[in-house]
DNA sequence: AATAGATTTATACTTATTCTAAATTGAAAT
DNA sequence: ATTTCAATTTAGAATAAGTATAAATCTATT
């Protein structure tokens, strides 16, 4: 049930996401594949990203922009976006378990996970702003 | 600077959102306007929703679906989505200040706010599932 | 080598939203 | 009351992200 079939295309898409320093969108991934000499169909990139997400080799991030971003870190963490330059950072500080429990009590839902997007201003933009 | 110009259209859009029991999308708002006998241009509904959001009379919610939803509650709160039926509930339990502070320390960002979407299963769907 | 299932490709389509240019409205000045 | 000007609305075109489709290709197994 967890057999993974990594075709050339899927492997190449995975490599791009894994080696990215940022959180690329599907379009970013497409561009980087071209830079590396590949030329896959647009749909194949989307299919591969979906496949890799389903196999939990990467994560799909919805940070409130139009396009999803992808992240090769699959351990539990959240994200922070700079309101000025858009830079996305990782947030490793875990959500207190107690908050989740309280939310379950409050809402009557069985709580599975929380997706958090923090907004703020990154160090660089803060420095620039001071001038 | 905070003069608010509520045209007929904007007022009608505001009324729909304010009187909604759920969190309507732009398309939902459009439909409800028609039910009430209005027939505004599609673009006007989007413009009005944007205007009302800018004036902070409503909030735009990005819950990870394709379409934004709108909420007339502008006080600080979060949302929880049922993975099965999609029902959206309000989460009033506040995120501990301490978590925000820790995130600021960790990331070096100046933290403004956190958008949280909790995923889980609502009471109704849980009951149905048991059978 | 033949077959079948999975995958890729190219392209068409869908959905949500924004843009544009012309028409309309409404308030202020004559 | 009429002119004027900016803001707004309208209808429809345009865009962006992603999905669907059908034919072609690849890959593993007989």
CATH first level of the largest domain in chain A: which class? Answer: Mainly Alpha
Succession of helices and strands of chain A: HHHEEEEHEH
- The helix fraction of chain A, in percent, is 40-55%
Q: Strands of the biggest beta sheet of chain A: in what spatial order? A: 4-3-5
Q: In terms of per-residue confidence, which ranges of chain A show pLDDT below 50 for 5 or more consecutive residues?
A: none
Write down the oligomeric state. Answer: homodimer
Q: Report the largest inter-chain contact.
A: A-B, 36 and 36 residues
Taken from the alpha-carbon principal axes, the silhouette of chain A is flat
CATH architecture identity of the largest domain in chain A: Orthogonal Bundle
Short characterization:
By secondary structure, chain A is of the alpha+beta class. Helices cover 41% and strands 21% of the residues of chain A.
Task: Describe this structure as you would to a colleague.
Chain A is an alpha+beta fold. Chain A folds into 2 domains: 8-71, Arc Repressor Mutant, subunit A, CATH 1.10.10; 78-130, 2-Layer Sandwich (Dna Ligase, domain 1), CATH 3.30.1490.190. The first copy, chain A, is 41% helix and 21% strand. The first copy, chain A, is built from 5 helices and 5 strands. The first copy, chain A, has helices spanning 8-19, 26-35, 42-54, 97-107, 123-130; strands at 59-61, 69-71, 78-82, 88-91, 110-121. A 3-stranded mixed sheet of chain A has the order 4-3-5. Chain A has a two-stranded antiparallel sheet with strand order 1-2. In chain A, strand 3 and strand 4 form a beta hairpin. Chain A is flat. The termini of chain A are far apart. The model of chain A has no long low-confidence stretch (mean pLDDT 95). Chains A and B meet through strand 4, helix 4 and strand 5 of A and strand 4, helix 4 and strand 5 of B. Strand 5 (110-121) of chain A pairs antiparallel with strand 5 of chain B. Chain A binds a DNA duplex (30 and 30 nucleotides) through helix 3.
